[in-house]
Amino acid sequence: MTQLQQIQKYLTNNSGRCDDCIGRELKIDRHTVNKICNDSDAIQRKEEMCKGQCSNRAKLLNSLIATKIASDSMPLSKTIIATLKGIFSNENTHSRVKLFAELRISHEGWLKIELLHALSARDKITLLPEKDNIDVVVCRDNPNECCLIELKTFPTNYGGAGKPITNFINSVIRDVKKLKAKHKTAEAGLVVWVAYPIPEGKCEQWDCHLAKVNKEAGPPICHQKVDLGGCCYAHMYVHQAFSEVDINDGVRIAGN
Fold first, then answer.
1. Taking the model in full, what pTM does it have?
2. Looking at the domain assignment, is residue 66 inside a domain?
3. Which residues, other chains included, contact 167 with Cβ-Cβ below 8 Å and sequence gap of 6+?
4. Computed from CA positions of residues 156, 161, 164, 168, in that sequence, does the dihedral angle turn out positive or negative?
5. Tens digits of residue pLDDT in 128-170
6. Within this chain, do residues 185 and 115 fall inside the same structural domain, yes or no?
7. Which of 224, 214, 217 shows the shortest CA–CA distance to 82?
8. Domain range for 110
9. At what angle do helices 30-39 and 19-26 cross, to 10 degrees?
10. Cβ-based burial of 17 (10 A; exposed 0-12, middle 13-18, buried ≥19)
11. Is the residue at 252 inside a domain?
12. 106-140: burial string, b at 16+ Cβ within 10 Å, e else
C-alpha cells in the first residue's frame, strides 16, 4: 500500500485530523504528509492543523499556556528552566535527540535555535546570542535582569567509537568556570548540557563523570531524561554557575 493510499484509508475514519496526527499514526514524516495531501486532489482533509480537535495538540497548547502564565511571575532564570523543560518534554525533541544519538553527533546549534525560538515568544524578553562570547544572553525588562547561558551537547563513546567522555566533561567544567568569572554582569549563569547515549548499566561509571561537574557547580538544578530505546537514555542537565536569587525551589526535575 502506497503512502497516499495509507493516508486516504486513515482519513476515511479520522476526518479533520492534522498532518501531525496523520504522520504520527502512520509513522510518516509530517512534511511528507503535507506534500502528499497538497499534491493530491483525491485527499480532502479539513485543515492542515487540528485547531484543537487533536487531543495531543490541545494538551500541548494547554501546557504551553500554563507555562507562560506561570513564567510571568518567575525570576528570569526559572523561566528559562521552565522553557528547557518544555523543549525536552516535546515528542519532536525526543525524535530528534534519538537521531543525534544514532548518528553520534553534537546538536548545540539545534538546541540554541530551539531555546531562542521558545524564548522569543515570551513578552519583554531580549535575546543576545553570542554576546561577549556567551552562547545565549537573555534579558528581561531591562539589562539588570539578565541570565548567561552556555550550551554543550555531546555523544558518548558508550557502545561505539568516539572521543573520551572525560574530554567533554572537562569542557562542561570550563563553561562553569567561564560563567563564574562573569558573575558581576548578570543575576544568574546557567550551564545546560546534554549527553547521549548513556546505558542504564553504566550508571555507576556515569555518576563518576557527573560528580566532577557537581564538584565545580553543585548538583544539577534540573535533570531530564529522554528514552532512546534499548535501555539507553539522553540526559539533559542544568547547572547553576552562579545566582543572585534562589532558583532551586520547585524547579528540580527528577530523572526517572
1. 0.69
2. no
3. none
4. negative
5. 999 999 999 999 875 568 999 999 999 998 877 778 899 999 9
6. yes
7. 224
8. 76-243
9. 120
10. buried
11. no
12. ebbeebbebbeebbeebeebeeeeeeeebbbbbbb
d(CA 191, CA 53): 38
Distance between CA atoms of residues 217 and 238, nearest Å: 10
Order of strands across the sheet with 232-243? Answer: 125-129, 136-140, 142-155, 188-199, 232-243, 222-229
In terms of domains, do 121 and 226 share one? yes
Distance CA 134, CA 150 (A): 6
Neighbours of 256 (CB within 10 A): 6
Q: Which amino acid is at 75?
A: P
Same domain (yes/no): 39, 88: no
The Cα–Cα gap between 85 and 79 comes to 10
pLDDT digits (tens, 9 = 90+) for 165-189: 999 999 999 999 999 998 887 788 9
Residue matched to cell numbers 531562542: 116
d(CA 179, CA 49): 42
Residues 161 and 125 in one domain: yes
Residues in CB range of 53: below 8 A, 6 or more apart? 16, 17, 18
What mean pLDDT value characterizes the chain?
Answer: 81
Q: What does the DSSP assignment read for 19-35?
A: HHHHHHHHT--HHHHHH
pLDDT digit string, tens, across residues 77-128: 889 999 999 999 999 999 999 999 999 999 999 999 999 999 998 878 999 9
